[in-house]
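Hi Y.,

Following your request, here is the sequence exactly as I used it, all 293 residues.
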Amino acid sequence: MTLPDAWPAFQLGLIGAGIGASLTPAMQEREGAEQALRLIYRKIDLDELGLDGSALPGLLLAAERMGFTGLNITYPCKQSVIPFLDELSEEARALGAVNTVLFRNGKKIGHNTDWSGFAAAFRRDLPDVALGRVVLLGAGGAGAAVAYALLTLGVQRLMIFDVDAEKTAAVIHTLAAKFGKGRAFAADDLAQEIPTADGVVNATPIGMLKLPGMPVAVELLRAQHWVADVIYFPLETAWLRAAQALGCRGMGGGGMAVFQAVDAFALFTGRPGNTLRMQQHFETLISPVANAD
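Below is the corresponding structure, written out as tokens. Let me know if you'd prefer a different format.
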């Protein structure tokens, strides 16, 4: 599609590993066109380029020099990118993860729209569930954002499990600085923690099309649980589907994907994204994948 030269221009990109199937570029470009913006969005796939996290400083510098407006950051760089930024928003600093970088006045400024995206989707899809005790699986970049969102939403006791105990400890430490001690804890025994929880959230990549499997045994769930997943490839993971078959209320990752993109669009362009329009475009994009699963 040829865009009029008179439209305001924005050059954006996504840095991550294995991002070939990401829907973010298409969502952002379509919304830009709807708002009469020349918005070009590039994928910078570490896997395709044969790079790892050590390339981050060079990629950030290159994007800045080429006049990019900003970048989205995804797995596995949401936490490792922080040392190379000049400033962090309050939320990004509090949760220790960045998924959006703006280039402004010679500075690289980190933001996080994952947490706000999850929170908005949760309020829409699970508005009246119990929030006394919740188990969170995963303490990486997505997990840190979800943890921040859950405490903001009012979860009283958040039990976090990750195979990397140091990551869990780091997330708990950052949450304590924002929300105080006594709200987030390390979960050592899921078989003990899940039966007494109100809900369970999967913020690990287990269940993605490229990493199939169950993040935790479905046998630990009961009909009274609510469950949420941050994965949207597939739109409904095997774990989420099995939990709902037990009678659990559930939320997939599609809502978070849309709402975080809406918030990032506003940061990049200074204009609010149209949530309904971006949701409809997301559903059009995801439909072939959902039908193939």
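The first helix runs from residue 24 to 34.

Thanks again,
Q.
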